[in-house]
Design brief:
Layout: E1 22-26, H1 30-43, E2 48-52, H2 55-64, E3 69-72, H3 81-91, E4 97-101, H4 107-118, E5 123-127, H5 132-142
Parallel strand pairs: 1-2, 1-3, 3-4, 4-5
Helix pairs in contact: 3-4
């Protein structure tokens, strides 16, 4: 199990932990939403994290102010995950979009993510439950931060 009370599991990226990041998280399951928020806050203590359970409210916030990162579940009320990706790809948003879903390995989800990537969206797909370090690695990669030495493997649900 990952010890989230430790200051940093990524010593090479210690300076990144103090970087001011703005993250928008959309998930209609409040427990999942809070878990993702906690994982990001643990790694990026100065991050501003806005959470939403309703897709339209999250999309309105994305219009108001662009984040450094947007995470969304796939399955939630209207609009669907596929529609959200279509809208973001059409707008050619410059920020990374992470689809974090228990349905990440379903072929039509994978196809929608690939299609969004082909349309220029900076996107990643992460399956729930996910490895905490995998989320951090994706953040480092997509936000161009040093990844450090992620050598522990712990599921987010543990």
């Amino acid at each position: 199990m990952t010890d989230l009370s430790r200051p940093s599991l990524f010593p090479a990226a210690a300076e990144a932990a103090t970087r001011l990041l703005r993250v928008v998280i959309l998930d209609d399951v409040s427990g999942a939403l809070e878990a993702i928020k906690m994982v990001i806050q643990r790694r990026f203590s100065n991050a501003t994290i806005l959470t939403f359970t309703k897709p339209e409210e999250a999309l309105q916030e994305l219009e108001r102010q662009k984040p450094d990162l947007f995470t969304t579940d796939w399955c939630h009320p209207d609009p669907s995950g596929a529609e959200i990706l279509r809208r973001l790809a059409a707008k050619k948003v410059g920020y990374p979009v992470f689809v974090i879903s228990a349905r990440a390995e379903i072929p039509w989800v994978e196809r929608a993510v690939k299609e969004a990537k082909l349309q220029g969206l900076n996107i990643a797909l992460l399956s729930k439950p996910f490895l905490i370090e995998e989320l951090w690695r994706l953040m480092a990669e997509h936000l161009r931060l040093p990844a450090g030495d992620a050598n522990k493997t712990t599921k987010s649900g543990e």
